[in-house]
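Hi U.,

Before I forget, here's the chain from the pilot set. I'm dumping it here mostly so it's searchable later in email.
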Amino acid sequence: MKEPQHLALHPFGQIPTYEEGDLALFETGSIVFHIAERHAGLLPPPADGDANARARAITWMFAALNTVEPPILELATARIFEGDKPWSKERLPLVEDRVRNRLVQLSRRLGDADWLDGAFSAGDLMMVSVLLRLKSSGILDEYPNLCAYVARGEARPAYKRAFEAQLAVNKPPAG
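Structure:
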């Protein structure tokens, strides 16, 4: 990811990147937004009865990346890269509390609905992908409605196709 060819696509040397013809995008939110604008079912059309549904779906995309994901990433950092530090035992519960605070708020908002704002949208796609980062932590299990929400997202045929395609890309070469 630090090779010049990749840095030409993503100046920060990270993933993901997306190429379509002569267009190169980086950052998950930008990529999902670009795809969502071009494929039916990810963003409500502007003239679809509820003129504000599209804006709300986009808001949920931002909420996933800017409000819910940061404490989840902080938890991953605390566990993976800071777990051996002498202050880790004191810090980890504080980080977990920040994650739980967001999950309580999200769980309350979702309630018993299938999706965040009526029909499935790119906002749900982003939120499910962010919440998937918590599966191995056990914290998500404390919120049954969020677990069911993530399971619904993973059960979508498009998710399954994307997951299988990603596995194919990451498959180690036969040797």
